[in-house]
Design a protein that fits this description.
Radius of gyration of chain B: 22 Å
Number of strands of chain A: 10
Number of domains of chain A: 3
Shape of chain A: globular
Largest sheet of chain B: 4 strands, mixed
Number of helices of chain B: 13
Strand content of chain A: 5-15%
Oligomer: heterodimer
Bound molecules: flavin-adenine dinucleotide
Strand order of the largest sheet of chain B: 1-4-5-8
CATH class of the largest domain in chain B: Mainly Alpha
Largest sheet of chain A: 8 strands, mixed
Strand content of chain B: 5-15%
Order of helices and strands of chain B: HHHHHHEEEEEEEEHHHHHHH
CATH superfamily of the largest domain in chain B: Butyryl-CoA Dehydrogenase, subunit A, domain 3
CATH class of the largest domain in chain A: Mainly Alpha
Chain lengths: 364, 393
């Protein structure tokens, strides 16, 4: 199902090809068995996927072509994150690609050439605060200090974070980095502590980090929620009780239909936010904030229901629903708390309305 | 230049509609209709249809050969958007005439039926739908109104119910049973019934929202000429599927576009008056949450409309998904409006002027969305069985 439509900057065929390519590779390599083995420490799926992603160009999907990327902007990113979510794929995609987005939009030319080609080629990954608005490094003189809880791999090359009234890129080679064990083992979270570290670069405006992360997390949630629903409905068709497949019980059918309805709304909520962002509308941040809040909560609802619809096996480590439920719960609290995102959107709506603009155009 | 002359230039087309609406829509129409009795309501609906007809917008989406303007979906979206923006009256009394009748006759009617009956719609013929019966609602195929052949006529006996605007209707699309012994879907025949025929008696039914828009129909030895049968005898169920599918989101689409402006106006006024709910974290966030769903719903409806012109449409459950989301969202919005209106909102008032000026009326009216045209439970059955492939047991 494609609901992310092309805009002037990107054509539909390119987006469809990207989706098909990513979906195909991930279905083959990041299936249920591989992901289960990964969370049990029995393979290095994250690394294998990362090098695949690099060689297939996925990591540069949002990066402009002159910096080694594919130049597919937030459309391409939404598609990539959706497909990664669908297979609960492990790897630091959200922090790295969101940081790249910010650098591409707000970095000085030297900063772009320093980092973007290395991200696009898969040479390095990045870390960003799990909640950028609540985290900040302190600046004294030319150095920055503090502790940050970040989304990112322990071997991330740099962190992009707020420091006082500016944003900084700090290389992590010498910093103290500790991996945090998470319930969601498909994601990596690290604590970074730095003392008077010298930033490699300063960025003026990085509010876009919140917007980029919001879109990424929302996209991941859309793909993941659809996937856990598909898996659950497939299970319901094979599991028999009272001499019939449980998928025949109307109480469960109606729940499944409600999940399908929620999924359709989630996809459009994301697509609207992506569309407004891609066309640079002033209301883009409103819709990205709301998309993250709405879609991640819906994902939690869906993943919860899918555990229940599986019965006993849903409560086991060995079945898939728990993987998605944990991913859903992490997604829900990333970026900013959802109530705060709704408030952020409300402030944006009030400002637009006071200025006499409608924030409700679809632009379709 | 008329509106239709501008059809090849979408912005000019939009502007022409906007200018026409500014000229023709009486600013006080809502207040007038809030107090109107049945005769005034009918007169107003007929006047509105006549105005639309004058500028070629009565049936803009029909093929030219049947009196339409043959406009595209893009045009229809523009028309709906401008009507919503101007808060223009809806042609509610003509819903069956404008949507269900052509949706049935285009695929299943004879050429003579199309020429005869479609032409009347632009002239203001009101049609109603005689499907539901007291004992056949969701299980429509169990209907029992009998039709018995008598020479070149059929004789009808039975009772229909919930038929919207049947009190004002000129004609009715009617489902009857011709073969009581056949399996229930196989013994149904579809007719066009003249509502002025002897033996047709209609009584209005009062709704929970105080209005009487639907009625029950008692049919006693009503004679219908055989040429007014749509499709073949005992093949009515198939024809009825076209009627039921004809809506394909159109009504919901117009409703959603109107709701967008209602909500937007409501919000702007709240901001201007610094309404208390804006400072209530929970209420403000709830509002933002349904705003997001409203946008998603408007996009979904555009997809349904686009899909309706493709061959995949007949197998798609997207219209059911959209019905589920749009009607429940409407209830959520009206419920929100009712809560923030406090005790004042419980004062008896029918349709009032402001957007959500009578939230209880709107809240109660919202049930028509979740019940009419196949209840939401039936939509869930459709989504689960046809969309998700869950077994029917
Ligand atoms: C405003 C309005 C306008 C209408 N206009 C028209 C009209 O113009 N012409 C016309 O013919 N009809 C019209 N209807 C009738 C409408 O189509 C029926 O009301 C509807 O199909 C439900 O039938 P019912 O009222 O008999 O309810 P029932 O079928 O008795 O349903 C009662 C409850 O049982 C549930 N239920 C029934 N069967 C199932 C099932 N298999 N699985 C799960 N749940 C089930 C229903 O969802 C509902 O909650 C209108 C109704 C309304 C409210």
């Amino acid at each position: 199902m494609t609901t992310i439509e092309a805009t002037a900057s990107v054509d539909q065929a390119t987006l469809d090809a990207l989706r098909e390519g990513v979906a195909g590779v991930l279905a083959e390599q990041s299936g249920s068995t591989a992901v289960h083995a990964f969370i049990d420490g029995k393979n290095t799926l994250d690394r294998e996927l990362w090098s695949q992603a690099a060689s297939l160009g996925w990591l540069g999907c949002g990066i402009p072509e002159q910096y080694g990327g594919l130049g597919l902007g937030c459309h391409g990113l939404a598609i990539l994150h959706t497909e990664l979510g669908r297979q609960a794929a492990p790897g630091p995609y959200i922090p790295t690609l969101s940081a790249a987005q910010v650098i591409a939009e707000h970095g000085a030319e030297a900063v772009r050439t320093a980092w973007l080609p290395r991200i696009a080629s898969g040479e390095i990954s990045a870390a960003v605060p799990t909640n950028p608005d609540a985290a900040a490094l302190t600046r004294s003189g030319s150095g920055v200090s503090g502790t940050l809880r970040c989304l990112g791999a322990p071997d991330a090359a740099f962190v992009l974070a707020p420091a006082g009234d500016t944003w900084v890129i700090v290389e992590l080679a010498g910093a103290e980095v500790n991996a945090v064990p998470m319930w969601d083992r498909t994601r990596q979270v690290i604590d970074i502590r730095m003392q008077n570290a010298k930033p490699a670069a300063f960025l003026e405006n990085s509010e876009t980090l919140i917007q980029a992360m919001a879109l990424a997390v929302a996209a991941d949630s859309c793909g993941a929620a659809r996937s856990v629903t598909d898996r659950t409905i497939a299970y319901m068709k094979t599991r028999e009780q009272f001499g019939q497949p449980i998928a025949g019980f109307q109480a469960l059918k109606h729940r499944a239909a409600d999940l399908a309805t929620k999924l359709a709304v989630m996809d459009e909520t994301l697509a609207h936010a992506v569309h407004r962002t891609a066309t640079n509308e002033p209301d883009a941040d409103i819709w990205a904030s709301l998309a993250k809040a709405e879609v991640t909560e819906a994902f939690v609802f869906i993943a919860t229901d899918c555990v229940q619809l599986h019965g006993g096996v849903g409560f086991t480590w060995d079945y898939d629903p728990q993987i998605f439920l944990k991913r859903a719960r992490l997604n829900e609290v990333l970026v900013m708390p959802n109530p705060a995102l709704r408030d952020r959107a409300a402030a944006g709506l009030a400002a637009a309305t006071r200025a006499g603009h409608s924030a409700l155009e679809l632009g379709l | 230049m008329t509106i239709l002359d501008a059809q090849n230039d979408l912005p000019a087309f939009r502007q022409a509609i906007r200018d026409w609406l500014a000229e023709v829509v009486p600013p006080d129409w809502k207040a007038r209709m809030a107090r109107a009795d049945n005769d005034e309501f009918i007169a107003f609906q007929r006047w509105w249809m006549a105005e639309r007809s004058k500028v070629g917008l009565a049936i803009p989406h029909w093929p030219v050969e049947y009196g339409g303007a043959g406009l595209t979906l893009r045009h229809l979206i523009v028309i709906a958007d401008e009507m919503a923006r101007a808060d223009a009256p809806q042609a509610r009394m003509f819903t069956i005439s404008l949507i269900h009748l052509p949706g049935t006759l285009f695929p299943h009617g004879t050429e003579a039926q199309k020429r005869r009956y479609l032409a009347g719609v632009a002239k203001g013929d009101v049609w109603c739908q005689g499907f539901s019966e007291p004992n056949s609602g969701s299980d429509l195929a169990s209907l029992r109104t009998r039709a018995v052949r008598d020479g070149d006529h059929y004789v009808i006996n039975g009772q229909k119910i919930w038929s919207s605007y049947s009190m004002y209707a000129d004609r009715c699309i009617l489902l009857t049973r011709t073969d009581p012994d056949a399996q229930k879907h196989r013994g149904i025949t579809y007719f066009i019934m003249d509502m002025r025929s002897p033996g047709v008696e209609v009584r209005p039914i009062r709704q929970a929202n105080g209005r009487s828009e639907f009625g029950e129909m008692f049919l006693t030895n009503v004679r219908i000429p055989a040429e007014d049968m749509i499709g073949r005898e005992n093949n009515g169920w198939r024809v009825a599927q076209a009627t039921l599918a004809s809506e394909r989101g159109v009504i919901a689409f117009e409703g959603a576009e109107r709701q967008r402006y209602e909500v937007e106006t409501f919000y702007r006024k709240a901001l201007e008056s610094d309404a208390a709910w804006l400072h209530d974290d929970q209420l403000r966030r709830e509002f933002m949450s349904f705003l997001a769903e409203m946008q998603a719903g408007r996009r979904l409806l555009r997809r349904v409309l686009a899909e309706s012109e493709t061959p995949e449409a007949s197998a798609s459950v997207l219209p059911s998904i959209v019905k589920l989301s749009a009607t429940v969202l409407r209830q959520r919005i009206c419920s929100f409006m009712t809560r923030i209106a406090g005790v004042e909102g419980q004062e008896f008032a029918m349709l009032a002027e402001e957007p959500f000026g009578s939230p209880m009326f709107d809240f109660l009216s919202a049930f028509s969305g979740t019940i009419a045209g196949g209840t939401n439970e039936i939509q869930r059955n459709i989504v689960a069985e046809r969309g998700l492939g869950m077994p029917r047991i």
